[in-house]
Amino acid sequence: MTRPATARLYRGTPRNLARLARMLRDGELVAVPTETVYGLAANALDARACRKIFRAKGRPANDPLIVHIHDRAQLDLLAETNSAAERLARAFWPGPLTMVLPRRSIVPAVVSSGLPSVAVRMPAHPLFRQLLRRAGMPVAAPSANPFGYISPTSAAHVRAGLGRRIPAILDGGECPIGVESTIVDLRDPRHPQLLRPGAVSRRELESVLGVRVRMPTRRTAPHAPISPGLLSRHYSPRTPSQLHERFSAREVGDSRVDEAWIFVARPAGVSGENIFWLSERGSLREAARRLFHTLRLVDAQRFKRLHFERARGGGLADAINDRLARAAGRG
């Protein structure tokens, strides 16, 4: 097919969904909305199509992809399941939870970066689910942005980053969650590990599984990542960035005007064109939803340095802090 100068935006009409499904079946790339962030989708069972994802993003071959499904039976096609995976699927699918399981041979090695495992998720976004059903196959879909840069939460973000490298974007509006899915390693169901925090919290996982969910340490973390989002620097603005436990009013007030300060909640007694916040009242749900949009907005203003304040609490605070730490190169 002839590729336009920049990616074409498609509304979620039945006719457009049918066309985009054909494109996926033909081995083309389509950027898609999910409840977490926008993904760059390709037929997960077509190695050639999946290699296009790596080329379009500039993604290293050792960083695995997440496979997205619309039907529970597809999980058995892709992975060797266990009782822990079954319980989590019943509790959280469709939704923002990815499970890492032993890979079946039908999954091309390129999808899992040659590893014997595969990361699988059943998304909840209604447009993406319609597209998956029409395509009739699982799709691999990492975030639809140049590798390492801030994840996209709108079709405009995708077009700005990959518009000249891909043919099509399904416009589903802004992503309602705004941070990537929780990833849990269930290769050994007796010892699950939380690889990446997200909207499904560690406490929720433990409540369903009835066992402690471990956090990987530097000693136990795999040399080669077994899922996306495990690199120490990721989701990163181009502007040098620093993560702080807390800001003081004096510290911010005495700062240079060419440095930006990003709070979780709107700060009292501090104002200026270099002051930003993720939520008016400190709502973690709103902060997560606006996180990547705000980082992109501030990154475009050519400050010399960005300063982030850690979110307080657990759950989504863990997800926000994980992204901020990796944005500052401290993951």
Automatic annotation (TrEMBL):
Amino acids binding ATP:
R59, S143, S151, R196, Y235
Q: Where is the YrdC-like domain?
A: 14-200
Q: What is its main location?
A: cytoplasm
Q: Name one GO cellular component term.
A: cytoplasm
Q: Which Gene3D superfamilies match?
A: DHBP synthase (3.90.870.10), Threonylcarbamoyl-AMP synthase, C-terminal domain (3.40.50.11030)
One Gene Ontology term of the molecular function aspect: ATP binding
> What keywords appear on the UniProt entry?
ATP-binding, Cytoplasm, Nucleotide-binding, Nucleotidyltransferase, Transferase, tRNA processing
An example Gene Ontology biological process? regulation of translational fidelity
- Family of the protein in this entry: Belongs to the SUA5 family.
Please describe what this protein does.
Answer: Required for the formation of a threonylcarbamoyl group on adenosine at position 37 (t(6)A37) in tRNAs that read codons beginning with adenine.
Q: In its UniProt entry, what is this protein called?
A: Threonylcarbamoyl-AMP synthase
